[in-house]
Design goal:
Porin, about 15% helix
Length: about 270
């Protein structure tokens, strides 16, 4: 009787041990076996980020913008082969943004772009060569004032860096259309030209977003022009008229269009 009881206890303990070991093996296999992904998830998974990390959740509003400003003053300045430059000028660009997130990590919206440039050059000279073959070109007076305005429909896709919700990349695609007005004056006596233009473009602006707080972020973007078309009409000395059209396809990085902005995610 006593022997049978000890044998029964030993058999029960053995069964419990092997059952526990089998469960541990099954759990380890389940962990090691990758989760089966759908076809859409396989297309989205490039191994660069975790798209389940939502930098911008669905249903969030985005308000932001960027401002750039530069000014210059030259007195008897020499730039390469251009000498005796006396000039002053400035350029300013304002770009507000309003967007809404229809899906996680993706927003659509509208961006406004206004820029203004001014240049007043009193003198500059260009000298090439020596002796009888020398080429000397001088400018006694040159004035330019231009301002442009555009409205762009945008779509921005955010790319999270792993599981980090503070810093990420984004690619902003925009379709923009607008116009510009320019005034030019030169020479003695002064000859003036007034120009009015229209342009449309399709471009990509990659950038980086870094959240300072839960709702405020700094954004750095670089303009990469894709496709563009412009048409300009001008009148010279209020007598002669002319017009020009141009189209381009350019995917070079525009260093001059680097912008730093602030955005609020509400």
């Amino acid at each position: 009787m006593f022997l049978n009881k000890r044998l029964a206890i030993f058999t029960a303990a053995t069964l419990i041990f092997f059952s526990s070991a089998a469960q541990q093996v099954q759990d380890s296999v389940a962990v090691a076996t990758p989760t089966t992904m759908t076809r859409t998830e396989q297309r989205q998974n490039r191994g660069l980020s975790n798209m389940k990390t939502h930098i911008v959740p669905k249903g969030q509003w985005v308000f932001g913008g960027s401002l750039t400003y530069s000014t210059h003053t030259n007195s008897d300045y020499t730039f390469l082969i251009i000498e005796d430059i006396d000039s002053k000028g400035y350029s300013v660009k304002v770009s507000p943004l309003v967007g809404y997130s229809l899906a996680p990590n993706s927003i659509i919206g509208v961006r406004g772009i206004y820029s203004r440039s001014y240049l007043n050059m009193d003198s500059a000279s260009l000298s090439m060569g020596e002796g009888d073959s020398a080429i000397n070109i001088g400018v006694d007076y040159y004035y330019m004032l231009k301002h442009s305005y555009n409205v762009a429909a945008i779509w921005r896709q955010y790319i999270p860096l792993g599981y980090n919700k503070r810093i990420g990349l984004f690619a902003e695609f925009q379709l923009a259309a607008g116009g510009s007005q320019s005034k030019f004056a030169e020479g003695q006596p002064i000859r003036g030209t007034y120009a009015k233009g229209f342009d449309i473009s399709l471009g990509v602006n990659p950038g980086v977003v870094a959240f300072i707080t839960n709702n405020m972020a700094l954004e750095l973007n670089i303009g990469v022009l894709g496709l563009g078309y412009s048409h300009t009409k001008q009148i010279h000395n209020q007598i002669t008229t002319g017009q020009s059209s141009s189209s381009n396809m350019n995917f070079k990085v525009n260093i001059l269009s680097i912008g730093l902005g602030v955005a609020f995610y509400l």
